[in-house]
Design a protein that fits this description.
About 55% of the residues lie in helices and about 15% in strands. The strands form 2 sheets. The chain has a 3-stranded antiparallel β-sheet with strand order 1-3-2, with helices on one face. Strands 4-5 form a two-stranded antiparallel ribbon. The longest helix is centred in the last third of the chain and has 31 residues. The termini are far apart. The radius of gyration is 24 Å and the shape is elongated.
Length: about 220
């Protein structure tokens, strides 16, 4: 069984997609590109901006590809103009870029490190590793308790609605992908348990309602 490919980066510019896939091809890293349409807007009909491309790779390749992207920016950051916006950032803001690398481009990440070094701020491999570890732990944290959605889920489940089924499934199975490719549950254990109960309750109530509606046809009481 082939490993599941996870979304590594999403773009609405095919040029950026091609740049990334070219790098993946160079290093024989398996990938897939999924195209989807964003929310409909008449102004964007037949426009590339109305499309989104998800580049998917194996979770175990996330760290390697991130490093390749960073290495690939070495020449570009040496040629950047001095009016580039990152040069106006404070040391704290630049360190925040390094801490939240997943929210920034590889170019900005590498340039932030270079600017800090030029300012005399030590940013060694250990510092970067510690920042990455802290970020992973931060992103691993589950979402706040979904009390409102749990209540809504039970209401729809008892009402026999399909919405209850989807709410329960989402609460019990939703996972998020971390920058290192690891997949973790998005909700805490109690919310997941409640989600499973909502899911199965929705099925039971739905099936019961269907049986109730069609039963007269088999008992001779239908028309």
């Amino acid at each position: 069984m082939e490993p599941e490919l996870l979304t590594f980066k999403s773009f609405n510019d095919i040029v950026l997609v091609n740049a990334l896939t070219e790098l993946l091809d160079q290093h024989d890293i398996p990938y897939d590109v999924e195209e989807s349409s964003v929310a409909f807007n008449p102004a964007f009909v037949n426009n590339e901006l109305s499309k989104e491309y998800a580049v998917k790779i194996n979770g175990k390749d996330f760290t390697r590809v991130n490093q390749l992207l960073n290495d690939n920016e070495t020449d570009d950051i040496n040629q950047v103009e001095k009016d580039y916006y990152l040069f106006d950032f404070t040391d704290e803001e630049l360190l925040d870029i390094l801490a939240k690398a997943d929210e920034w481009s590889s170019f900005d990440y590498q340039l932030a490190r270079k600017i800090l070094t030029a300012r005399g701020v030590e940013v060694n491999d250990k510092t970067l590793a510690d920042l990455k570890k802290s970020r992973i732990e931060e992103l691993k944290a589950t979402e706040p308790s979904q009390t409102s959605w749990i209540i809504i889920g039970y209401i729809f489940a008892l009402g026999g609605g399909i919405i209850g089924l989807f709410v329960g499934w989402h609460l019990s199975s939703y996972k998020k992908t971390l920058p290192d490719g690891e997949r973790v549950y998005g909700y805490n254990e109690n919310d997941r348990k409640q989600g499973k109960r909502i899911f199965y309750l929705s099925i039971v109530v739905f099936v019961a309602s269907v049986i109730y509606k069609i039963a007269p046809a088999f008992t001779g009481n239908g028309y």
